[in-house]
Amino acid sequence: MTTSCRRSPEPLSPHLLPSLALGPSPVPDGDGHITLLPWRLRRESLGRSTQGGPHGEGCKSQLPPVGKAPPPLTVADVMTRDVVSVSTATPVSEIAGALAGKRISGVPVVGADGSLLGIVSEGDLIRRAEIGTQRRRSRLAKVFADISAEASDYVRAHGRKARHVMTSQVVTATEDMTLADVADVMEKRHLKRLPVVRGDVLVGIVSRSDLVKAVARHRAPLFADPLTDDIILRDLMARVKGLTPSHRLIHISVHRGNADIAGLVDSAAEREAILVAAENTPGIRSIQDRMILRRRSIS
């Protein structure tokens, strides 16, 4: 990594306006720093929002207090409400066709009253007699096999209805769960989707792709007024302090939105985390990276 930061032509802060409003995203200039458009042009592209008061008064900055995070996204914000579902009597061939045709990885199984009874996923259909992938046991394994387990495997491989192949013990989500909690559950249980229930009734489904779409839709907020260097500095220092116990060895200064970061870090990962924190700090226009990896003594 070079000591002159600018890592990417992508915007470094929420103060950048969308490319549709101001043309292509800013690109690094000759010395490696990212140059943004003047605040006046950005305000004009926002429809002169700073002059929209009822008496011609300037609008107040919409900047939230430093350190105050926006409300977390919940399942209700991103879930798919129009859910493809099946009944316990739906043929396995029809379920497989729905998964393939609609490019989804699982379908909930519901009762006549809309209650969630189970789910059929791709994993439930990979051991099927139709394609010769049913489980095969060696003769020795059959001697010691659990008769109940062997019978269950047979039903899942040869059964023709959803009730034969569905997973009955389903991990679910509720509409008020945060996306952080959903991500934790998906990661720990290696799940691709969670049915969303209200009581026992299915009301939606949230999948990994819904979380990815939320990332794609995310846009950092635009602020009508520029931030002062003091506010930017306090915000960045708070971020760095929360990242590393070595923050006392880091010196940061901000001048006209240009951050200078110097000091000692223990690892390249720590250095990268500090730079990412700076890129995500509203008001930062460019970053000068002068951090040095601390040498470790060899005993």
Describe, in short, the structure shown:
The protein is of the alpha+beta class and 299 residues long. It is built from eleven helices and eight strands. Helices cover 32% and strands 16% of the residues.
Morphology call: elongated
How many strands in all? 8
In CATH, the homologous superfamily of the largest domain goes by the name CBS-domain
SSE pattern, N- to C-terminal: EHHHHEEHHHHEEHHEEHE
CA(first)-CA(last) distance: 28 Å
Amount of beta strand = 15-25%
What does this structure look like?
- With 299 residues, the chain is an alpha+beta fold.
- It has helices at 19-22, 39-45, 75-78, 92-102, 139-144, 147-158, 162-165, 179-189, 208-217, 229-243, 268-279, and strands at residues 4-5, 106-110, 116-121, 193-198, 201-207, 250-255, 258-265, 286-293.
- It has two domains: 4-69 and 221-293, no CATH class; 75-217, Roll (CBS-domain), CATH 3.10.580.10.
- The chain contains eleven helices and eight strands.
- The chain has a four-stranded mixed β-sheet with strand order 1-8-7-6.
- α11 (268-279) links the parallel β7 (258-265) and β8.
- The longest helix has 15 residues, at 229-243.
Q: What secondary-structure arrangement, pairings included, does this model have?
A:
Layout: E1 4-5, H1 19-22, H2 39-45, H3 75-78, H4 92-102, E2 106-110, E3 116-121, H5 139-144, H6 147-158, H7 162-165, H8 179-189, E4 193-198, E5 201-207, H9 208-217, H10 229-243, E6 250-255, E7 258-265, H11 268-279, E8 286-293
Parallel strand pairs: 7-8
Antiparallel strand pairs: 1-8, 2-3, 4-5, 6-7
Helix pairs in contact: 10-11
